[in-house]
Amino acid sequence: MSTNEHYVDGLYEADADLERVKAGIAEAGMPDISIADGYGRLLTLLVRMSGARKVLEIGALGGYSGICLARGIDQQEGGGSLVSLELLQPYADVAARHLAEAGFGGVANFIVGDAKESLVRLKEEGRTFDFFFIDADKEGYPVYLDYALQLAEPGAVIVGDNILLRGRTTDDTKQGPSVQAIRAFNERIARDGRLESTVLPGYDGLAIARVRG
Ligand SMILES: C[S@@+](CC[C@H](N)C(=O)[O-])C[C@H]1O[C@@H](n2cnc3c(N)ncnc32)[C@H](O)[C@@H]1O
C-alpha cells in the first residue's frame, strides 16, 4: 500500500463489521484478498449514488465487498437485493454468515458454482441488474463483462477490481492468460461504445463503467 493510501485509510474509524470479516477470513484460513478498504467505501457510494437496487457480485470470498455493496442499497419501497456468485461452498457459507452478522441476511443471496454457469442460468431466467461488481478469477473478466452487458438495465454500473494485477498488467514480459484477459477487459472498458468509463490506478486498480442508457 502506498503512503497516500495508508494515510487515507487512517482517516477512517475502525469498521466493526468489516474487521469481523477480516478476522473470520483469517480464522477460516481463506486468502487475504478482499477489496481494498478505500474501494470498499467507493462501492457503497457508487451503489447509493446510482440508486441501484439489483446488485450482482461475481466473487464473494468472505463477504467484505458484499457488505460494502449491501450498505449502498436503498431498502425503502420494497427493498433491493444482492446476488453473489461464488465458486466455493465454504466461502459462500462464510460470506453469508458475515452478511447476516452485519444485518444484511435478508438482502444477500448466494449462488454457488462456476460464475460462468450461474450467469448462463441468470440470463435464461431473464434476470437483470443495475449494478455489477466483478472480482473473481481474472481469466474470466472478459466473459463476465459480456454477461454484465447482456444482463444490464440501461444506465447500469459495472465495476471490476484488481485490473493492474499488482504490476503484471503493465509488465510486457508477462503474457499469461490472466494478464492477457485483464488487458482485454481494460481495453474494452475504455473503448466499448456502449460504455462510459474511467479506470482508477490506486490500490490494485479499479475499472468503473456505466452502460449508456
Ligand atoms: C478476490 S476474491 C473476491 C473478494 C471479494 N469480492 C471481496 O472483496 O470481499 C475472488 C473470489 O472469486 C471466487 N472465484 C474464483 N473463480 C470463480 C469462478 N469461476 N466462479 C465464481 N467464483 C469464483 C474465489 O473463490 C474467491 O472467493
Task: Please tell me about this protein's structure.
The chain has 213 residues and is α/β, with parallel strands linked by helices. It has a single domain, classed as Vaccinia Virus protein VP39 (Rossmann fold). Helices cover 43% and strands 21% of the residues. The chain has 8 helices and 7 strands. The chain has helices at residues 3-10, 16-27, 37-50, 64-72, 89-101, 115-124, 141-151, 177-191; strands at 54-58, 81-86, 108-112, 129-134, 152-161, 195-200, 206-211. A 7-stranded mixed beta sheet has the order 3-2-1-4-5-7-6, sandwiched between helices. α2 (16-27) packs antiparallel against α5 (89-101) and α6 runs parallel beside α7 (141-151). The longest helix is centred in the last third of the chain and has 15 residues, at 177-191. The termini are far apart. The mean pLDDT is 97. S-adenosylmethionine is lined by residues 33-35, 59-61, 64-65, 85-88, 91, 114-115, 135-137, 140.
How does the SSE layout of this entry go?
Elements: H1 3-10, H2 16-27, H3 37-50, E1 54-58, H4 64-72, E2 81-86, H5 89-101, E3 108-112, H6 115-124, E4 129-134, H7 141-151, E5 152-161, H8 177-191, E6 195-200, E7 206-211
Parallel strand pairs: 1-2, 1-4, 2-3, 4-5
Antiparallel strand pairs: 5-7, 6-7
Helix pairs in contact: 2-5, 3-4, 6-7
